[in-house]
Structures are given as C-alpha cells and as structure tokens.
Amino acid sequence: MLRFPGQGPRNPDDVVVGPLDLAARVDEALAVQALAFGLGADEVAVRRQIVLRHLTYPGARALGATTVDGRLVGFVYGMPNDRTHWWSTVVEPYLRAQGRDAWLDHSFVITELHVHPHYQNHGVGRSLITGITDSATEPRSILSAIDTDSPARGLYRSLGYEDLARQVLFPSAPKPYAVMGAPLPLRRR
Ligand SMILES: CC(C)(COP(=O)(O)OP(=O)(O)OC[C@H]1O[C@@H](n2cnc3c(N)ncnc32)[C@H](O)[C@@H]1OP(=O)(O)O)[C@@H](O)C(=O)NCCC(=O)NCCS
Fold first, then answer.
1. Above 90 in pLDDT, residue 8?
2. Residue 152 in this model has a pLDDT that exceeds 90
3. CA distance linking residue 103 with residue 183, whole number of Å
4. What is the pLDDT, as a whole number, of residue 1?
5. Within 10 A of 166 (CB to CB), how many other CB atoms are there?
6. Tell me, what DSSP letter sits at residue 116?
7. Is 42 exposed, middle or buried (0-12, 13-18, 19+ CB in 10 A)?
8. What residue owns the CA closest to ligand 1's atom 5?
9. Quick check: 97 pLDDT over 80?
10. Boundaries of each N-acetyltransferase domain copy (predicted)?
11. Which fold has domain 2-183?
12. Residue nearest (by alpha carbon) to ligand 1 atom 30
C-alpha cells in the first residue's frame, strides 16, 4: 500500500508520503486525527487553533500521506523543542525528577502523528515519523503518547524511543501520558 513517487503501478489505496502544507489542509488533517484518535467536534475546534499556532513556531514542519487521488490519510508534524513551549513546560518537571530533562534541549518534538484507520498497519506511520525526523538537525527526538500498550507505543519502541517519564498528567487530558525519547536517526528494521 505504501509506495514512493515513480514506483510501480498505482492502485486507489496506494499512499505516497511527502511534504504537507498543514496550515492549508488543517481541516483534512483534523478529520484524520478525529477518526484515528477519537476527537469530538469541540476538541477538533480547539485543536485547529493549536495546530495553526504551532505552525508559526520556528522549524515547525509536516509530512502527509496522500492517496493517488489526493486524499490525505495520515500526517505528522513537529518542531525543534523550546523549553518555553507549553508542552515542554508540562513535561519538564517529570523529566527533571528522572534526571533526564537534558532531552528537552537540541531535540525534535513529534507533536502529532495520525493515520486513518483504514490505512493503518501498512507502514505509513513508520514512514511519516522516520521521514520527518530524517530531516531534523537535532541529535534526538522526543514525544508523548498515552501511557498504555497501544500500536503507537509499539511503533515508537520499535523505532528506538524509550520511556523517559511515565504517568505524566497534562491539564485537561483524562489519561496519563508517557514521554519517550530516541536518538536520531531513528532505528531501521
Ligand atoms: C500510531 C499510528 C500513527 C501508527 O500508524 P500505522 O501506519 O498504523 O503504523 P505502521 O504500519 O507504520 O507501523 C505499525 C507498527 O506499529 C506497531 N503496532 C501496530 N499494531 C500494534 C499493536 N496492536 N500493538 C503493538 N504494536 C503495534 C508495530 O510496531 C508495527 O510495526 P511492524 O510494522 O513492525 O509490525 C496509528 O496506529 C494511529 O493513527 N493510531 C491512532 C492515533 C494515535 O494513537 N496516534 C499517536 C498519538 S501519540
């Protein structure tokens, strides 16, 4: 299902990963996230403002997974970490308690990664996250994921991400998160 530009015959379910103008396609991206992650309309409206603000931060960038007829079925975005960003201020005390807050410096943060359920488990998520981190100049990457044994956590572990802190509570998020970090480039299979 995952193919690369110029490769082989095309079929409607084929997906190509490449640069994404996320500001222009934020509604499509959030529709994917709503299906993949289970967001309601109110949460989508809030996330929309947050994504558009994130895209103004230095170094913020996105990759998309698109079908041959142009439908967006997955995306990732992130940016170099900045300790003054809200996400970093929330996780910092948890990392500091583990003596691991140096991970917040010179680190590329994966802010969101989502793949439409119909397209999951075909290597699209792996291709998105390795693609975006391959273009990072930072020596490491960090992210947070719900602290449970999910496909996301399995994927991150297989790419070399390790737990830096667990049971991290974000204001207004009902479930605790794990903060994970990996050296770059991410591990290949
Ligand atoms: C996480 C997500 C983006 C992965 O995308 P994907 O395209 O399905 O992932 P890939 O096919 O590239 O990789 C699948 C990998 O996930 C892991 N995985 C998949 N299902 C798994 C499961 N049930 N348990 C553990 N690991 C699992 C495996 O490591 C697998 O690697 P493999 O190819 O060696 O088997 C996708 O599942 C998703 O959108 N989930 C819902 C939203 C979400 O949780 N986003 C992350 C927020 S932190």
1. no
2. yes
3. 10
4. 72
5. 13
6. -
7. exposed
8. 125
9. yes
10. 15-185
11. Aminopeptidase (3.40.630)
12. 155
Q: How far apart are CA 32 and CA 139, in angstroms?
A: 30
**Average per-residue pLDDT for the chain:** 95
State mean pLDDT over 5-10.
62
- Closest C-alpha to ligand 1, atom 10: 123
Order of all β-strands in the sheet with 72-80: 2-3, 15-19, 61-67, 72-80, 107-115, 140-146, 177-183, 162-168
pLDDT of residue 156: 98
Alpha-carbon gap, residue 109 to 145, rounded angstroms: 12
- CB-ligand 1 contact for 78 (6 Å cutoff): no
Nearest CA to ligand 1 atom 9: 125
Is residue 15 a contact partner of residue 1, using CB atoms and an 8 Å limit? yes
CA of 34 to the centre of ligand 1 (A): 16
- Helix%, strand%, coil% for the chain, nearest 5: 35, 30, 40
Q: What is the identity of the amino acid at 56?
A: T
Residues in the chain, total: 189
Query: What are 113-138's pLDDT values in tens digits?
Result: 999 999 999 999 999 999 999 999 99
Residue 126 alpha carbon to ligand 1 centre in Å = 8
122 close to ligand 1 (CB < 6 Angstrom): yes
